[in-house]
Amino acid sequence: MAVSVDMQLPEIAREAARKGVKIMATGDCLHPLWLDAIKELSEEDGLFLLDDTYFVLSVEVEDSSRVHHLIFLPDTSKAEELRESFASSSGNMSSDGRPRLSLKGSEIADHVIEAGGLMGPAHAFTPWTGLYAYFRSLEECYQEKAQDIRFIELGLSADTDYADRIADLSTRTFLSNSDAHSPRSNKLAREFNQMELASFSYQDLILAIKREGGRRPMKNVGLFPEEGKYNRTACTRCYQQYSLAQKDELMGRCPDCGGRIKLGVADRVNLLADYEKPVHPAHRPPYLHIIPLAEIIALALGHRSVTTVGVQKSWNALTQSRTEIEVLMQADLDQLSAEPRIIEAIRSFREGRVKVQPGGGGRYGMVGLAEPLREDRQKGGQRSLFDF
Predict the structure, then answer these.
(1) 251-299, pLDDT tens digit by residue?
(2) Are 249 and 375 in contact (CB under 8 A)?
(3) Is residue 297 within 8 Å of 306, Cβ to Cβ?
């Protein structure tokens, strides 16, 4: 449902390799047909290998409060065991990749722990189905199992600076993942994590999430939170944005169109925050803000879509001998072969010379260049987060 017909394992593996992502989460691993497809892959140390891409078993489930939870599992037998244990609590296990369960978060955690899996809130700040849409803390949601929640997924509308204003989260690992509804270059791995692993294995990946055994996250990489479609408080019909005080005064109804005004992530964090400014614990890695390379190229060329021939031609040329992540974060720009305005646009993003028009109410924000492209600009200049 709501996914491109091209989202099949071979296509995902191919495009992940071009992006530069080594381990992809499968998603939907409780769905019997999808699990059968995964079983056809070669299994190595708890991961599933297809060409140059590893897959880790994962699934997102919805609880009785509408909160979504992300689950990682060690093997297909445990996925089958978990599906069987959920069967009596779900009516759509075989028809929806993200099953709805008549269970509380703590009850789901019981099942996951019994199956040897790891679980945390998915897109924790999203106002419709995130944990903080309905609860004020991990303990409220997971009760006695809160101590077993080792990570939270930030979601597109939040980043480390948002989440580290909440004291309760200081001991948890932050994952910057993104749902991929299409294998296109601007959808797959819009957000990703860089992990320090000793080997490509399920055990090492889980140790990194738990920050144990010398394994750990090294970077979170993702969109500017303002670009998320629920970042600001806004009407879900006409997308007019409002302050929190205006929302309360209007009793949650837009005076222009009568639509519902939905509380945005930025305002929700302000309500929950223990700190005025983020307090990052020593273990927290840097968060790097980027947008997909195809979108940068479209901005540079003045194209409205990433699917135009010009954008795709330039993207293919830049990623012919390098992955997209290498182009965005690591490559010497003087060594790249592309139109000068594209190189200058990449440089602008590396140096943070961008502006963001925040999204809200279900409409994504817009990212643009803070100043006109200057193709003859002097090389060098201010260091950016990409330099670290």
Answers:
(1) 999 999 999 999 999 999 999 999 999 999 999 999 999 999 999 999 9
(2) no
(3) yes
Q: Which phi and psi angles does 193 have, rounded to 5°?
A: -125, 140
Q: Pick the closest to residue 231 from 366, 363, 368, 359 (CA basis).
A: 359
Residue 57 pLDDT exceeds 80:
yes
Q: How far apart are CA 299 and CA 291, in angstroms?
A: 11
As annotated, the residues of the chain forming the CATH 3.20.20 domain(s) are 9-226
β-pairing verdict for 23-25 and 53-62: parallel
The reported pTM is 0.92
The model's confidence at residue 180, banded by pLDDT at 50, 70 and 90, is confident
CATH number given to 9-226: 3.20.20
Do 306 and 199 contact (CB within 8 A), yes or no?
no
Q: What is the dihedral of CA 354, 359, 363, 365, to 10 degrees?
A: 0
Tokens found for residue 88: 């009596």
